[in-house]
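hiii, so i know i said id send this last week but things got crazy w the move. better late than never?? heres the sequnce for the chain we talked about at the cafe, plus the structure i predicted for it. fair warning i was half asleep when i ran it
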Amino acid sequence: MKRVSMIVAYLLILTFAVTACYPSLWFVSNSGSDKSDTSQTTQSSETAASDSSSVFPESTVTEESSETDSGTDTQLSTTQTTSGTSSATTTTTKPDTGKEMRAVWVSYIELNSMLNGKTVAQAKAAIDGVMVNCKAYGLNAVIFHVRANSDAYYKSKVFSPAASVKNLLNAGFDPLAYAVEAAHSRGLELHAWVNPYRIGTNKSFAKCNDYFESDGRYYYNPASDDAQKLIISGVDEIVRNYKTDGVQFDDYFYPSNLKNLPNDDYNKYKSDGGKMSVGDWRRTNVSKLIATVYKKVHSIRSGCVFGVSPRGVQDQNYDVVYADVALWMKEKGYIDYICPQVYFGFLHETQAFDKNVDSWIAMPRHSSVRLYIGLALHKIGILSDQYAGTNAGKAEWAQHNDIMKRSLLSVRSKPECGGVMFFSYRYFTPASLTQSSWSRDVAIREVENLLTVMKP
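okay and structure toks below
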């Protein structure tokens, strides 16, 4: 009997030792997953959209996807908690197997320079020149500004024509229609770039009364149903009337300088029993628009995509302009792609390029959402990057002439990324630019080095 007791005691001690040495064995047997696996990221977030559930993508208990044309394979699940509904997302990174995106933004400032005061023949030649150059550079997509400040660079029934193209439109020439044709005839995609909320410095361009002024500029109120309907109508006519390959919003949501921001809508929401903080409420307003635009684009034309190009620093999106980018990436029904503006060099003190890109890769992302990286072509040759922190970071763009080349190659080396977008078109020809506080020679060499690796 004594011998049996000793054997039992020995077995108990052995079991305890094994468990102590391998605690994860107990965890795996009870949860079915090993949270210590660095190839998986788990994130829980509070869902603050319950007051607008009819507008947001449908919530599901479990959603699994095995699509192979995106950077991630995601499983979504929701569980009820005392504080509401929380959404837990586990993301396993997978290579992006889609066509590499190599795009350039053509801004309204560049369009104004090309088209203002021009004849129809001159306007056609200018747009053709853009597409010919983009093809020669090795690009395969153009992000074409169609609305910058509650205006239109196309024939619109919703918005007034932009001043620089008004005469062309009156003459029967539609810049967007011609740009789509010019791009497609050369094998380029064309995406319509829209700033949804900006009105600009002239409030007469406002097409509904729900707007406010902040620091001398006017913006549509993101909380306004009328403003949202107006914005949606503008997107509708673009996708319905033009064979664009996509629609893109950039990083302008709530203005970063919140002077004179009205609180009447939020106060009414609270008086009606609303529980969200003002920050969550603002983010919900923006997310409502994003979800509705996504649904609208996909309902009109198959194959047309909707993407957002937010700020490169994630906290600024969430806390400054009230864009819940993490939600849009994590759940299907908001965006088809995300293109953060990673406008930093490799020596930036707090947002070094590779480190920043890796932070975006690490974010949970639904399998339907592709990840592109926005590159700072506009910084080539500048003498001082004033917010880069260290002296080396500030001087990086003047002392190195291969930052764009290394940035592109770095993105290509990360299989989760699907391509890049360059800001902006005019900086591909630095010899033609007149700027202060920059090195033209460095900028020219930057572009030469970049073009050697543009085509994969």
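btw Confidence is low (pLDDT under 50) at residues 1-90. thought thatd interest u
miss u guys!!
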